[in-house]
Amino acid sequence: MQPRPIRFFHGGEVVSLTGTPPDRTVLEWLREDAGCHGTKEGCAEGDCGACVVIVASLDPEPKTNDQQHGKRADGLILRTVNACLQFLPMLDGKALFTIEDLSRASLTPGSIAALHPVQEAMVTCHGSQCGFCTPGFVMSLTAIYEAHLESGARPTRGAIADALAGNLCRCTGYRAILDAAAKSFQLPAHRLDTAKTVAALQSLALDPQLTYRGPNRDRRRTSQQFIAPRSLDELAALREQMPHATLLAGGTDIGLWVTKQFKDLGDILFLGSVEELQRVERRNTALTIGAGVCLENAWEALAEEWPESREIWVRFAGPPVRNSGTLGGNLANGSPIGDGAPVLMALDAQLILRKGSRMRTVPLDQFYQGYRKNQLEPGEFLQAIRIPRREPGALVRAWKISKRYDCDISAVCAAFALTIVNDRIAQARFAFGGMAATVKRASHTERVVLGKNWTRESVEVAVEALGEDFAPWSDLRASQSYRLQVARALLLRFWLQTRADRPLSADESTVWATQSAS
User: Which fold has domain 275-388?
Assistant: First the structure.
């Protein structure tokens, strides 16, 4: 394919870029080139939310009268993302909204009447002190505002708090910001001008596949390629030809390689334009999630089948990260503290790997071979995750333990799944993150409970057996003894909530498990 410019819609017009490094971030471009200084740089690692922007793309399946609630009638998908983790070529064919796009341009600039309802509500509810975090909050609140005007519903205070989990404020306090979110719906409605956006995106969709060449950031090489194939076959062929290229999906981890570790990514193969990788398919025997499905959509699909996973979903980073990062990337990354792998391992997930035209299936619990080492061969990539559908009577729970409730790395993440037949345990899958160099199953503990009744006696034996499976390390997040104590308490909590005789509620089991394990 012939190289072409990066093209996206921003500020009411199509932007065409050449001569910029392929790994230049959207945040750098906004502040240094576009003159959009409202988007702030805080942490530059996706934690603080000061750089949150909204990216719009065309929905491949626009809303019809019989489709699910939440689809936009105009065919747009609006997602909040962290501009510090998005590379400019990832915007190709999309639209970018920043804080500068919100005001009513037809009214007097600077007057409160010219503000977007979210901005006006932030002023009247005193939702800003130093103001550094405010643009990011406003963009996240605007995404909530747009979604709920579309649906006609009003978000609960809890839903607003969850939607702001990726935004950090150090001085105002969240009460005033939550008040502003509620207040915005009481003001005269004012929505983003999406009609022009849809027309622009429809025009951009006619562009050929993006193959972009730009200068290397640190000038060690004369040029760097960013290639965005649009079909699975094209991706497979390119991956075989370029086995050492960096595979890029959402950028929530790879972005840090550039902004924090100053790595040279080399040539980049982008997965975000391959439609087949963005699909979630439900069949009689399995749920299949494409490797390119964003974390938000992937967890939504998992929680629909296994509602017990919802807590992990809402605590897995914040919405801007979940809207960008992918479940496939989380698994392929192989972090021993990744929260996706324990849940999927407990659910007996299989990974579909592809190299050229050859495909193979590997159980997730056999995929990891050591710290950040896996079974992927040169030229091979993760195509999809397949999870068996839920069996009747399956007992499933998953929990994340961290110092901070939202947007924190787990000290321990645990997921449990049991199948009981004729009052005896027929299958047991206990998976833990944060307890070893890889996410792994507690295989010895599983064997201890197989064939037994799910009783207090059997779970006490299992709790002790965890010491045979794991010898966790100590670090800044938790000590070795604390991790093992927490793992034991979570296994006991699982029994307390799933025992046949008087299972406890979540609150009751937390108190009891903590007291019993201490």
Answer: 3.30.465
Dig out the tokens for 261 from the structure. Answer: 């570790």
| CA proximity to 40, closest of 48, 50, 30, 49 | 50
CA angle centred on 437, ends 432 and 441, rounded to 5°: 30
pLDDT in tens, 236-284: 999 999 999 999 999 999 999 999 999 999 999 999 999 999 999 999 9
**What is the rounded distance in angstroms from the CA atom of residue 460 to the CA atom of residue 457?**
5
Residues 6+ apart with CB under 8 A from 233: none
Q: Cα–Cα distance between 167 and 80 in angstroms, integer?
A: 11
- The pLDDT assigned to 446 comes to 98
Domain ranges of the chain: 6-202, 208-270, 275-388, 395-517
Residue type, 218: D
Average pLDDT over residues 401-405: 92
Q: Does domain 208-270 have CATH number 1.10.3720.10?
A: no
CATH architecture designation of domain 6-202: Roll (3.10)
DSSP 8-state secondary structure symbol assigned to residue 104:
-
Fold of 395-517: Enolase-like; domain 1 (3.30.390)
Could you tell me the pLDDT band of residue 167, with boundaries at 50, 70 and 90?
Answer: very high
298 exposure class (CB count in 10 Å sphere: 0-12, 13-18, 19+): buried
CA–CA separation, 456 vs 447, rounded Å? 16
State how far the Cα of 263 lies from the Cα of 275, in Å rounded to an integer: 29
Return the amino acid letter for 402.
Answer: S
Which residue, among 228, 340, 346, 357, has the nearest Cα to 295 in the 3D structure?
340
469-514: pLDDT as tens digits: 999 989 888 999 999 999 999 999 999 999 998 998 888 877 665 5
Same fold yes or no, 208-270 and 275-388: no
Alpha helices in 260-353 (DSSP H): 295-305, 310-315, 319-324, 327-333, 340-346
Residue 403 near residue 477 (C-beta atoms within 8 A):
yes
What pLDDT does residue 223 have? 84
pLDDT band with cut points at 50, 70 and 90 for residue 150: confident
* Residue 151: closest CA among 63, 279, 79, 80: 63
293-319: pLDDT as tens digits: 999 999 999 999 999 999 999 999 999
pTM > 0.85: yes
Beta bridge partners of 81: 53
Are 212 and 3 in contact by the 8 Å Cβ rule? The answer is yes
Q: Could you identify the residue written with the tokens 């956006």?
A: 197
CA 403 to chain CA centroid, nearest Å: 20
> 197: closest CA among 380, 355, 349, 72?
72
Confidence of residue 106 (pLDDT cuts 50, 70, 90): very low
Q: Is 491 exposed, middle or buried, given 0-12, 13-18 or 19+ CB atoms closer than 10 A? A: buried
Distance CA 100, CA 443 (A): 54
